[in-house]
Amino acid sequence: MSPQRAADRVGAPSFGSAQSGRGRAIAAVTGIAQISEAPSVPPSEISFNPDNPREELGDVSDLVESFTEVGQIVAITIATVDAYLASRPGRQDELESGTKFVVIDGNRRLKAAREAGLPSVKVIPGDEFVSTDESLLEAAFIANARRRDLSDLEEAQALAQLVKFYGSQHKAAKRLSMSQPLISQKLSLLSLTAELQADLEAGHRNISHVRNLAKLPPEEQKAEADRRARSDAAKKAQRKQRPAKGDNSVITPAEKAPVPEARAPQGDNSVITPQAETLPSESSALPWSDPAALNAMIRQHATAEDRLTLAKLLAQ
């Protein structure tokens, strides 16, 4: 008999019958079946997490403005109420009445979505993240952070959850065999302005243009990202203007200057020795400023072994 999904075992609402690749990957690691992905859920159906009280969420007016102007970029990770209560049976009264899901990551986003009046919010289902078994919970977070189908922002969000679980970037880096500076660099994407995050998700921005911009004030981030984009575009334009390198360049040998005919002095019966032909020095005739021509000349006159030796010498 095939194992039941966690949602089915507890009678939780289902997002669909097909299990996602992410769900299968985590299920293989943790042994917990996953609910399928859902594109969106009404905010009224999601309860704030009791472990993160609403009064501690602070002012979310900046997020409200962002949701109104740009829309929601980063999804809210949720679990079904039944999955949450399965290991916390005494906390039913701490959840909002009539809700079907509980926030795992994104309480401030949920609060902002409600204040902005959004009819629905993007979610990432994750019943595995409400397990009280530390080993299963750790495996679930690690599997989520190592997924290969994540966008840059989704990876940053997954890493943030793992760092929160371990309590530090250093511990998370060690567990993932990843350097702490790299994790910090990836997490910085979560501090970008909503406009830059939206551009990054839509493919309008290169990751190199927005990396490590979190240290700048929001009003300066876009200007710096634009400057990096212009710099990259200028470098690409310069590379295109350079002559293409290849082995098919046609080399036209330099013409030799005619040698004047030696004349005997009048009235002189001495033996005339023909004047030696004056040739331009070999070094001056080489096309030093044309790498492609040099390449073709070397291939014409040098053996394969000599060319290999020359390449090693040039690389030193």
Radius of gyration: 34 Å
The chain-level structural class is mainly alpha
* Global shape: elongated
Q: Indicate the proportion of strand residues.
A: under 5%
Q: Assign the CATH class of the domain at 1-149.
A: Alpha Beta
How far the N terminus sits from the C terminus, by CA atoms, comes to 65 Å
Per DSSP E runs of 2 or more residues, the count of β-strands stands at 4
* Secondary structure: helix percent: 40-55%
Tell me what the CATH architecture of the domain at 1-149 is.
Answer: Alpha-Beta Complex
Arrangement of strands in the largest sheet: 1-3-2-4
Q: Please tell me the overall pLDDT.
A: 75
| Uncertain stretches | 1-38, 270-274, 276-283
Per DSSP, the total helix count is 15
Query: What would the CATH topology of the domain at 1-149 be?
Result: Conserved hypothetical protein from pyrococcus furiosus pfu- 392566-001, ParB domain
- Note the quaternary state here: single chain
Reading the helices and strands in chain order gives HHEHEHEHEHHHHHHHHHH
Kindly report the name of the CATH homologous superfamily of the domain at 1-149.
Answer: Conserved hypothetical protein from pyrococcus furiosus pfu- 392566-001, ParB domain
Major sheet characteristics: 4 strands, mixed
GO molecular function: DNA binding
Protein name: ParB/RepB/Spo0J family partition protein
Region (Disordered): 1-22, 211-288
Family: Belongs to the ParB family.
